[in-house]
Amino acid sequence: MNISNYYWYFSGVLTPKFCDDVIAYANQQEETMARTGGYGDRKLSKDEVKDLKRKRNSDLVWLNDTWIYKELHPYVHEANRNAGWNFEWDRSESYQFTKYKHNQYYDWHCDGWDKPYEKEGPNNGKIRKLSMTCQLTDGSEYKGGELEFDFRNYDPHMRDESQHLRREKEILPKGSIIVFPSFVWHRVKPVTSGTRYSLVVWHLGRPFK
């Protein structure tokens, strides 16, 4: 898919109070070890956990509270419009509150899959179209943990490692948001000190024609 913008960001738009409220609320909930597609909800063996952590190592909490959707949805619509994507979407998945502590990370991946959801329910037949990451922790509170993108599969002018696009300065302030198509490859580099809190959500719609 040819697009002119691979992301759209808003720097420091969420209030510190909102960010702190989300962190406090999420830290009261039961957290789970982050997984990647294919592992499901079953209990994993020690070898499977070890294999999983080669790809992804973080802890998370799932949230679906209306007050969070109400705060963030306007930015998804604005990014979708301003970036020129104009993707049709009509549903958001649960929010993923993610904790990246010392040495935790998420290697290269994209959020979309090759097939629509097949389970019965409101997500059936839909795909992830837009991904959103919200910076709940200020960049001064941790080191490492950079969100990076790889556009080489989409732009023929980007062929080498040095052309991974990084937007560390723009999205480091607390309350920053970045929105991008769910097929774009990205990663979170290892945190070397402190803790990075983020909020991630995927927005769904019918498959592209």
**What is the rounded Rg?**
17 Å
Q: Would you identify the regions where 5 or more consecutive residues have pLDDT less than 50?
A: none
Overall 3D form: globular
**Could you tell me the strand content as a percent range?**
25-35%
Q: What is the overall pLDDT average?
A: 88
**Major sheet description:** 8 strands, antiparallel
Can you give the helix content as a percent range?
Answer: 10-25%
Structural class determined from secondary elements: alpha+beta
Q: Report the order of strands and helices.
A: EHEHEEHEEEEEEEHEEEE
What is the terminal-to-terminal distance? 11 Å
Counting DSSP H or I runs of 4 or more residues, the number of helices is 4
Number of strands: 15
Topology, element by element:
Elements: E1 8-10, H1 16-27, E2 32-33, H2 46-55, E3 56-57, E4 59-63, H3 66-82, E5 91-92, E6 95-100, E7 105-109, E8 127-135, E9 142-144, E10 147-150, E11 165-166, H4 168-171, E12 177-181, E13 185-188, E14 191-194, E15 196-205
Antiparallel strand pairs: 1-12, 2-4, 3-7, 4-6, 5-15, 6-15, 7-13, 8-12, 8-15, 9-14, 10-11, 10-13
